[in-house]
Design goal:
The protein is about 35% helix and about 20% strand. It has 13 helices and twelve strands. Helix 4 packs parallel to helix 5. The termini are far apart.
């Protein structure tokens, strides 16, 4: 008993951790899908992929975090959405390869565990898992005094999906003439927040600032969860309609699209209808951010990009319309050594 008391004096309370685990048990179990083995409290999370009846299964994995968006949550003392962001950042990376999300794990480190706030974070993670239709099968919560201040915390997530080997999407099937469509983002998602916070501090802009009739409170908008694209992407990949998919995260359009384009192919934004959303223009103006940096730091209104054969565009548009998915026509794939041709885009944005 004295050893436990000594550990508590050092800043780590084992009893608090155990109580937290008991509190989140039911909400975690509520995320479980077919194939999940209920073993809450053991050392590892179990998932039986044989239950999913894949012939040649491949597992696709991703690890990510939510960056300094956490500081916004801390400043506003609102912790109910940041867990959704965590799931989205990992699961969207899995989706671009056509994989169906099956399970997720989380890691939370803090200076001192606040059960109430941590429970809200886990509830958000579970909400994200349900939206992605994957199981939360494990996680770790660590008190680390001396590394983190009392109220500071950090999050990391690990998502895993499954796909038939022959259905794997890498972008290598993208061809010249393919149509490029952007799926709208829900806001800044989880990228660029260090720059956003720097601009707000430098300009003395407070969180409850009204931006326009749609964004009546800047702080609340900044915590808008990252969109999870599982439903629409799986609807399209199930019918094998896509040649490539790109998740627009850190690095933006400039760095994420070239990752999947085959050698010698480029994207021409000619005749695009991509308009820079007002909030991004507002950030650009207040931070004096140039065109290329905007495209490298932020998603600029697009969270996911899909590539398809023009012969399939009508079928795809019908599915997108049925799912009420908001889209942006970006252009076409052409033969060019320069991966992205931005001249038409720059002229229309006037940044």
């Amino acid at each position: 008993m004295s050893k436990i008391n000594s550990y508590k004096k050092a800043g780590v309370n084992i009893n608090t951790g155990n109580l937290f685990i008991k509190k989140i048990k039911q909400v975690v179990l509520s995320t479980h899908i077919k194939g999940t083995i209920k073993n809450f409290g053991l050392f590892g999370g179990f998932f039986d992929i044989s239950k999913l009846n894949y012939k040649k299964p491949m597992l696709i994995s991703s690890a990510d975090g939510v960056g300094t968006k956490i500081k916004i949550a801390e400043d506003l003392k609102r912790f109910d959405t940041i867990g959704i962001d965590l799931v989205a950042m990992c699961i969207n990376d899995v989706l671009v390869h056509g994989a169906k999300p099956i399970f997720f794990l989380d890691y939370m480190a803090t200076g001192k565990l606040n059960i109430r706030n941590a429970e809200k974070i886990i509830n958000g993670i579970c909400k994200g898992c349900k939206e992605a239709k994957c199981s939360l099968i494990g996680g770790e919560t660590a008190e680390m005094p001396g590394i983190y201040k009392k109220n500071d915390f950090d999050l990391a997530g690990f998502g895993v999906g499954i796909i038939e080997k022959n259905d794997l999407i890498t972008g290598q099937n993208i061809k010249s003439g393919d149509i490029v469509i952007g799926l709208k983002s829900s806001g800044f998602h989880s990228n660029g927040y260090s720059l956003i916070r720097h601009i707000l501090k430098k300009k003395n802009i407070i969180y409850n600032t009204r931006i326009n009739s749609k964004i009546k409170n800047l702080g609340q908008f900044l915590l808008t969860p990252t969109k999870i694209y599982a439903k629409i992407i799986l609807s399209l990949t199930k019918k094998k309609l896509l040649n490539g998919i790109s998740h627009i995260t850190g690095g933006g359009i400039i760095e994420n699209l070239p990752r999947i384009l085959p050698k010698g192919l480029s994207i021409d934004f000619k005749n695009h209808n991509w308009k820079l959303p007002y909030i991004f223009k507002w950030i650009s103006d207040n931070g004096n951010i140039k065109f290329n940096e905007m495209l490298r730091v932020f998603n600029c209104g697009i969270g996911m990009v899909i590539f398809c054969n023009p012969k399939k565009i009508n079928v795809i548009q019908n599915i997108l319309s049925k799912e009420k998915e908001k889209t942006i026509y970006l252009g076409i794939v052409t033969k060019n050594r320069k991966k992205i041709q931005l001249s038409n885009l720059k002229k229309s944005w006037k940044i």
